[in-house]
Amino acid sequence: MTATSLQGSDVPAPKSLPRLPAELLSSIFRHLEPYTLKRFLTVSRAWYTEIIPVLYSRLVFSKYNHESLFSGFKTHRRHIRAVEWTEDFYEGMSFEDAQDILLDIPTTASTDGLEKRTPLTPRPNQPTLQSLRLFSNSDNMMFQDEFIYHFISLTDLSLTFEGESTIYIALDRLFEGMPHLRYLSLEGVEYGPLDPESRSLDRNAPPYRLETFSFNVWLLYGQSQGINVLRRLQNLSSIRIIDNTFLNLRKNQPLALAQSLHASCPKLKMIETEGKVPFYFYLLPPSAESSPMNSHGRTYEAQQHLEEQQRQQCEDSLELFPKLTTLISRKNCALSAEDLRCLGARAQFLTHVELGDWNIDLDNPIGYVADSRGDSHGQRDPRAQWRHLLTSLDLQIFLETCQHLRHFVARRTIQLSDMTPPNRTLSAIYYMPNRNGRTVRAAKPWACERTLETLEIGFRMASTVPSDHRIVFEQLGRCRRLKSLGLTRSNLIPTLRHGMDLLEDLAETLEEVISWSSNWVCDDKETVLWLMERFKKLKKMGVNCKGGSTLADRVLEWTPRSVAKFL
To answer: Which domain holds residue 525?
Structure first.
């Protein structure tokens, strides 16, 4: 059919591609997969021009990437903005191959038969990297020292090394050579000595731009270089402190660490620890009570007096991080009871708390902070009293006092006797002589009832009496903004008879239940149907039954709608 005959027909003439602004095209292409982008390269010259910088902006060294992909990055290396070296990749490609892709640095054979590397010299096609994340064994990264310093435009740097060799990082050179760095993570490295000519020793030098820093705990122990570097990190808002050495906790100095951060990093909002990292958040007054906070063996009046005394102690303590919003302590949590109680009473902006498993020597519960008795010179700080391990009562008191908490995870349990209101009576088992003389305290409602959205904690019950269990469910039912609930470590009995009906006020907010109990499976038809009918937003029910099991088949018989939520 000719073009003339088309004019009198109803067939629409073909239209050209709309000319979208280059900024809009680039924004769209950033949401597409590399495979799709390659297919679009031949659409038009304008599309090709916008796709190339997006297609080659992120380089991932992975054994799943074909070698032909890396040849394209050699040609377009100036567009690379982010590089990631995955954990399994160093076995498939040498570090020198990566250098060749990023820096085009050749290697030549020396007279002794070993490879000789020419000096690293920047080329015109060198990328302007913003993010570099390397994971490798130390033996394979022996030449990283000079390699990383070529990318002076980095804003995000993560180095993780594993192996027998030791990798040393000169922090002063790192910060001085990368003035735009805002995120830094160093794992498996040793910190080399500072250069005597380094500006890090100059107290009048401007602060570094770093905002997030993840480092090994030994940065601040044994050498003064960590303290000197901290003085230039005044913009730091988030830190992650790692201890994977499994050394004796007595060798650590939580007071020195906290005081250094307090003096040098006034903007700290997030503190995360991983491993046995004792850390002080408050300096206690000289007259601080040294007794642990628990109700075992005390009368009601004596317990109330002790709680009031330690509440006043929190008010008189010196707050080291007044802007703290997030506290995360993973693996072998070493947070002390005194610090947690002070955080609940004093931290005005604290909204997110995660406390991992406690794996401290229980035979020596109060001896895990070395500078409680004195610093390295044997001088005792009067505000560094012995700190105690967290107990059930410490967790309860924290929830009773922390007013703005939104996310709380604790790998521990709260005893019912520690959270019983004064107008409630427990079953007789809580008053038996063989229960260590346990007495009931006058518990208060949680201060975070109007703000709490995520809760994962355990509740330990000593009886199966429904009235005892209803005390816990009544407290949970008052948290009317709760979206996620995890009771994995609990031995609650979640049935309507034991208090599930008291959660009805959560029907409009609750979206998931990680688990109702660690040792409970749902076989109560009335409770299951009630949950399905009332909690319309619930996406995960947390009932312990697997697909194909007898229990799952029974639930399926009750209501077909429950399949996706139970299995």
So the answer is: 453-567
